[in-house]
Design a protein that fits this description.
The chain has helices at 4-27, 37-56, 64-96, 103-108, 110-121, 124-147. It is mostly helical. The longest helix has 33 residues, at 64-96. The radius of gyration is 17 Å and the shape is elongated. The protein starts with a helix and ends with a helix.
């Protein structure tokens, strides 16, 4: 059921995911086509904001410290799922070119791809947006949940 905390959480995390995906696109100028990277980040961000942060901030009983922690958790889960989906897709594309001779090598091939993407994400601007955006989103969701409690 949609509540104010869930809607605001989804919108804020999706906005931060959109900004961070733009920053990552600037950090990787050699990639000409990002395909559905930005919409994927926005959708995963909205889902994590709705399910993780919005669910816990629903009635405004978190408190500010816990709201910051849950906001950071929602942001971390957004990064995890986007990283996993993008890396799995990239590993699948490599497998389609028949460079892996064994199905388990596709799974083992995820590790270098994830490591490469994490090195790209270790830029200061990206980390600042993720940390402060998650913390501020947690506080805003808590305030929305306490002002407009659901159910």
């Amino acid at each position: 059921m949609p509540t104010a905390a869930r809607i605001i959480s989804a919108l804020c995390i999706a906005f931060i995911a959109w900004v961070v995906s733009g920053l990552i696109k600037q950090l990787m100028p050699d990639e000409p086509d990002f395909g559905v990277f930005v919409p994927l980040c926005v959708v995963v961000g909205a889902l994590c904001g709705w399910k993780i942060l919005g669910l816990r901030a629903d009635r405004g009983r978190l408190g500010y410290a816990n709201a910051i922690g849950v906001g950071l958790s929602a942001m971390a889960m957004t990064v995890f799922w986007v990283l996993l989906i993008v890396s799995a897709w990239e590993s699948f594309e490599i497998a389609m070119h028949r460079t892996f001779h064994d199905p388990m090598r596709v799974i083992y091939g995820l590790y270098p791809i994830v490591t490469e993407h994490l090195q790209t994400m270790s830029d200061t601007d990206v980390i600042v947006w993720l940390v402060f955006g998650g913390a501020i989103t947690g506080i805003i969701a808590h305030m929305a949940g306490s002002k407009w409690p659901g159910r």
